[in-house]
Amino acid sequence: MKTFLVSLLLSFACVFPAAAAIDTYEFDTKADQERFRSLIEELRCPKCQNQNIADSDAEISLDMRDLTYRMMIEDGKTNDEIVAYLVDRYGDFVRYKPPVDKRTFLLWYGPFALLALALLILVVVVARRRKAVTALGENELSAAEQQRIQQLIEQTRENK
Amino acid sequence: MELALYIPELGHLALILGLCFAVVQAFFPLVGAWKADHHWMSLGQPAAWGQFVFLLISFACLTWAFITDDFTVAYTANNSNSMLPWYYKISAVWGAHEGSLLLWAFILAGWTFAVAVFSRQLPEEMLARVLSVMGMISVGFLLFLIVTSNPFERILPQSPVDGRDLNPLLQDFGLVIHPPMLYMGYVGFSVAFSFAIAALLGGKLDAAWARWSRPWTQVAWAFLGIGIALGSWWAYYELGWGGWWFWDPVENASLMPWLIGTALLHSLAVTEKRGLFKNWTVLLAIAAFSLSLLGTFLVRSGVLTSVHAFASDPTRGVFILIFLLVVVASSLLLFAMRAPSVKSKAGFSLLSQETLLLVNNIVLVVATAMVLIGTLYPLILDSLTGSKLSVGPPYFNALFNPLIAILMLALGLGVTLRWKNTPVAWLVKMLGPVLLVSAALSLALTMLADEFNGAVLLVYFLSAWVVFAGLRDMFEKTRHKGLWVGLRGLSRSYLGMHLGHLGLVVCAIGVVLSSHYSAERDLKMAIGDRVELGKYEFVFEGAEHFEGPNYISDKGTIRIFKGEKEIAVLHPEKRLYLVQRMPMTEAGIDPGFTRDLYVALGEPLENGAWAVRLQVKPFVRWIWLGALLTCLGGVLAACDPRYRRKISTRVKDALSTTKKGVANNV
Amino acid sequence: MSKGRLIAVFAILLGVAAFAGMAVYGLNNDPRELPSALINKPFPEFKLNNLLVEGQTISKQDLLGKPALVNVWATWCPTCRQEHDDLNKLAKQGVTIYGVNYKDESAKAQRWLTELLNPYALNISDPKGTLGFDLGVYGAPETFLLDKQGVIRLKHVGEVNDRVWREKIGPAYEELLKQ
To answer: Thioredoxin domain location, by residue (chain C) (predicted)?
Structure first.
C-alpha cells in the first residue's frame, strides 16, 4: 500500500522512508522497553511527515527519540509530561493521538453519534417492517414479486 | 525498423483513438436508449471493443518503450534504466503517475469489454445505459491522461543516454502485481456504479438488477481485497519496520471503498433475495465508486500529507477534483431525483437475516465514515481554523477495532437467522450450544497463554462464535441429506460466503495475536553475539559486502536457534541503489504458519557490529492468509452457476423484464 | 419534484460545495508546512557559546530591545547557502539578524562566515541542537521574527528570499518597528 506514487519522493527533504531507524537503547525491564516503543510510535516526525518517530530516520526523529528516552528513563517523567513537552515545541502536529478538545469533538465523538443515529434508524425500520409483517401476514409481496422470488428459489434448487 | 521509431507516437495515437471510441460509447447508446433506437443502442458494444483494442495497443506501445530502453520518451527516461532486470522494466510501466493512469484507463476498458461480452443477455436498454455510463467515466480518465499526463511525451533532441531508474521501492515482486490488483478493484466498482446509474436512468430497480450487478461487484471487491493485502504484505517485508498497516491516507483511500464494497455485497444479497433496500443498495454502489475516485484524488493531488504524497502538478489535482465532483454530484442528484419512492411492502421481524444484514451495513458504513473523518479531519480543521493536528493509528485503532468486534458478533447471529422471521426457540436451540462452546474454548485458550489479555480473549471468543455458528448452519442445511451429499448440494454462493467469513476470522486472529504477543528488540550486535528473544536465540555472524545488478549491499548473516537446533539462517540486507543513491532495508524473514522471525539491519557500528532489529511475530501471516481466503470467498460466490448466462436468460424471460431484443441479436 | 427530494438535492449540492472548498484549500496549501507552536510565546531561555568570540556566552537577554530575526542555519544545509546573500542584503538594510548555528562544526561555520560575510549581529553556537529543539526546529533553515520584548511573532520554514521578505516577513517586521 505504501506505494504507487513514490517516484517523486526524492523531492522530499527528508531521508528516504524505506531505511528503518534502528537504535540501540538499553532498558532495564521489558515494561520500560514496551512503554518506550509504544510512545515513540504515537509521535509523529515533524519533518518526514507521515511517519512516526520510531520508524523515521530523520535527524529530528533521532533527537526526539533521544529526548523521549532521557525523559522517560533518566528523569522518570510520565508519558503525558513527555508528550506535553514535545507539543509545547512542535505543536499538536507531533501527536498521532489528537487531544480531545473542542476542535476534535467531531473527530472523537462523531462516529459514535453516527452509530447511535444509525441504530435509531435501524430500530425505526425494523419496527415498520414488523408492522408490515403483522398487517399483511406472510403474503405481503405483490404477485409479481412473489413470482420472481419463486423463480429464483426454483432455479437455485435446480442448480444445486 | 524505421517504423519502430514511431512506436510511442503510435501509442499516443491509439490513446486518442481510444478516447474517440469512448466518446461514441458514452453518447450513442444513451441517446439510443432514450429514443428507443436499436441502431444507436447497438453501437455501445463495438465501441467498447474498439476502445479496448486501442488502449491495449497504447499500453503495449508504452511497454515496448520500456523493454527497448527508449529513453527519448520522458516517462521511460524518468522511471527506467538499462540495468533494470526485464521484469521490472515491465512493471516500471505503472511505476509512476502517467503509466499508472494509463493502466487504470486500460483496466477500465477491460472491464467495459468484459461487460460487453458477458452481459449480452441483459435487456438492450440496460446494457446500452451501462456501457454508456462506463464510457463517460472512460472519457473523463482518457481526457485526464491525454491533457495533463501524456506518458508518450518525448525528450528530443537531447534525450538522456540512460534512464533515472525505477524507484528502488518498486523493484519488488509484491509491487509488480499490487497496483494492477488494486486498480482492478477500484475500477471494477465502476461496473456496479454503472449498473446502479443505468437502473436509475431506466427507472427499473429490481431484484434482477441486483442479480446482474452482484457477480461483478464480488469480483471487483475480491481484487481490491487482494490488492490491499498485497500492499500490506509488501510494507511488512520491504519497509523494514515489521509493521503491516499504518493508517496512512493512501492506505485509507483503498480501505474505504473496500469497506463500502463489503456493505454493498451484503446489501445486494438482500435486494436480490428479498427485493428490499433497493435505494440503499444503489446509494452504496455510488458510494463505493465515489470513494475509489476520492482515493485517486487524495493520492494524486497531494492534499494530504502522506509518505506517498508527491510534488504534484496542480492542474492534475484540479482536473481530478473536478472529475470527482462531477461524478459524485451528478450521480447523487440523479439518485435524489429518480430513486423510486414506492416502498417495498415486504416485511421482516427483528430476528431475521434482513435485520442482521442491516446491522452489518450500519457497522461497515460507520466504519467507513470513521476512516473518512479521520483521514480528512486534519485537512478540514486546517481549512477552517488553520490549526494543524495529526490523526494516526491510536485514533483509528481505538475506533475501528470495537466496530469490527460488533460486526463479528452480529455475523454469528446473521448467518444463522432465516429470512423474514426466525422462531426464538429454534434460534436458542441452534446458537445456545455455539455460545457455550465458544465461551469455554476461548477461556481455555486464553488460560494457555502466560499472561491474560482481554483483547485476545475477545478475539478467540468472536472467532469461535463465527466459525461454530457457520458450521452449525451448514450442518443444519445438510442434515436431511447426509453430510457429504448435503455439502455438495450447497451452492457456491453459500460456500463462498462462509469462506469469506472464515477469512475475516483468520485475519482478526492474526491481527490481535501478532500485535499482543510480538517480541521485539532493537540492539547493537557484535560479531558472534548471541541474543535470546522469546523461545529463540539469534546469533549475529557479521555482514559482508555484496553487489547486485543495480545496487550494492551489506548482507548480514544471522543464525537462529531454538534450543540446540538451528532453525534458520537469515540474510537481512542494507542496500544502496546506485542510480538514485537510495538506501533500502531488506529484511530477513523466516516465515512460518504460527510465527515469523524477522530481522533487519540498521546502521553499521564500530568493529563490524551493527544495529539490528529482531522480531518474533506470532501468527502475523494469518493476516494475509485471512485476506486471501476472504477474496477467494468472493470469487467462489461470483462463480455461482446461477449468474451464468443461460439461467439468467431463463430468469429474465420469467421475469419478463425484456420487451424486445434479448441479446441473441448481437 | 416533491419537497423531500428538493431538500435532498440542496443538501447534496451543499455537501459537494463544502467538499470542493476544502479540497481547493488543500490544493493551494502545502501540507508539509507546519505553523510554529511558539507563535506569540516568549523566546525560550538559553545560554550558549558565542560562535565567533571564544569564552563569551549569549543568553536570551542579549536578543531583547528591538525587533529582530533569528535565523537557524548550518553549513550542511544547501538552502542556507542560497539564502545567505539575501540575509546579507537585509543586514545591510539595517535589519537585525541573530544567527543560530544549528548542529554544526564551529570551524566550518566560522570559515563560512568569513568567506560569505557575516550578516548576523550575534552568532549563537548550538552544536547539539538544544536551542533548536526548544524552538521546534525540524530542519534548517528556519527563521523567527521577535518583537522587542522577545516574543516570537512569526516563523518561516525554508529560504528567506526577496519574495518571502516582501510578502511575509517584511510587513510584519515593519509593523513591529512602529510599536
So the answer is: 37-178
